[in-house]
Specification:
The protein is an alpha/beta fold. Helices cover 32% and strands 13% of the residues. It contains nine helices and nine strands. A seven-stranded mixed sheet has the order 1-8-2-7-3-4-5, with helices on both faces. The chain has a two-stranded antiparallel ribbon with strand order 6-9. Helix 5 packs parallel to helix 6. The protein is globular and about 70 Å long. 35% of the residues are buried. The chain binds 2-acetamido-2-deoxy-beta-D-glucopyranose (4 copies). The site of one 2-acetamido-2-deoxy-beta-D-glucopyranose has 3 residues, from loops. One 2-acetamido-2-deoxy-beta-D-glucopyranose binds next to helix 3. Keywords: Signal. This is Histidine phosphatase superfamily. One of its GO terms (cellular component) is cytoplasm. InterPro entries: His_Pase_superF_clade-1 (IPR013078), His_PPase_superfam (IPR029033), PGM_Phosphatase (IPR050275).
Length: 349
Amino acid sequence: MRASCLLSGIFAAASTVLASSHPKHLNYTVVTGIFQQDDPATNASGFDFIGSNFGLINRTYPSDYSCPDRTHATQWQRLAHYISSLNKKSPRNERYTLLFMGRHGEGFHNAAESHFGTPAWNCYWSELDGNATVTWADAKLTDVGIQQALRVNKFWARLIKDEKITPPETYYSSPLYRCLDTAKLTFTGLDLPRKSPFVPIIKEFLREGISAHTCDRRSTKSYIKQNFPGFKFEHGFQETDPYWTPLFAEPRDNQDGRSKAVLDDIFSSDESTYISISSHSGEIASLLRVLGHRVFSLSTGSAIPVLVKATTLNGDGPPSTTLPYAPQKTCAAPPAIRDASCNDCSCCV
Ligand SMILES: *[C@@H]1O[C@H](CO)[C@@H](O)[C@H](O)[C@H]1NC(C)=O
Ligand SMILES: *[C@@H]1O[C@H](CO)[C@@H](O)[C@H](O)[C@H]1NC(C)=O
Ligand SMILES: *[C@@H]1O[C@H](CO)[C@@H](O)[C@H](O)[C@H]1NC(C)=O
Ligand SMILES: *[C@@H]1O[C@H](CO)[C@@H](O)[C@H](O)[C@H]1NC(C)=O
């Protein structure tokens, strides 16, 4: 079908980025012991990333002895020095990069799912563009979602001023409205270095896992351009959504394949050490799987830092599978059941 043909086309394009006479591929691992979130003992549910300095662990690093003004340096300054020393010492095929991955604030689709209950949402309401009062196709942020993003904006302001964190050098976002708006609210008005202003690049493959839900269908490029004038589009970004297909869903293996492709694309074109990604719960879960990070679910408006070691290895990487999109069952009327036991729409009335 159409969507999967296009996907294999893009995979081929992404792998030619790394192709040469000697094939190479990128392999990712997480450097653990840096953030509480990378420790399997940390409870992800209700984790307070704002109250815990982004989860940064208070510790010494082997490079502390050479850290400038080390008696006054903050934990974030000593971490920056550590990452820089890892990058200086590493062989040419290795690099260390700190990713900040943020989930969008609450969108109208999140509020609607809570309102209707998951079975009625999945099997009926989510396939519509909205109801008489609310639109959830390419959902915008609710007031709650806007407040969540502004809270993270205050947090970044404090991290920059008091904790002397190194802010992102480059910014990427999903093309869905809720992420674009979250990124804008989060990073506007900060005291950012002149050489790395907030000019996000929109990447198709940072979008949410594609389901039959209209909240996974993106708007046109012209509409995005009109609403987010300072944002840039990756090369080849199409005017209309090439992937979302009514009543079909992207298999999880395809999603992990395109998460790997988008990371490979970023890591082979961007030399930044500090990178921000604005995305979704399902997509960040997929990126974490590709990076080899433990499962760590994010609530709306939450973010997670991950120190990544990327290694360029010889030979072709493991092949990525591209399965056909799976048809989705729906109900002709919303099922009355509220608990999530009905996740295959077998409870249609
Ligand atoms: C590749 O990454 C995986 C997990 O992310 C890791 O277990 C493995 O050791 C890495 N391989 C090499 C050769 O670096
Ligand atoms: C994790 O925290 C949640 C509340 O935030 C709690 O309900 C749950 O029992 C905790 N899990 C563990 C394993 O401690
Ligand atoms: C880490 O250190 C800071 C100040 O240096 C302190 O305020 C904070 O409570 C410490 N956190 C933990 C978890 O020990
Ligand atoms: C539309 O859905 C929202 C849930 O997000 C709900 O609050 C609202 O009452 C619904 N409107 C109508 C007319 O049913």
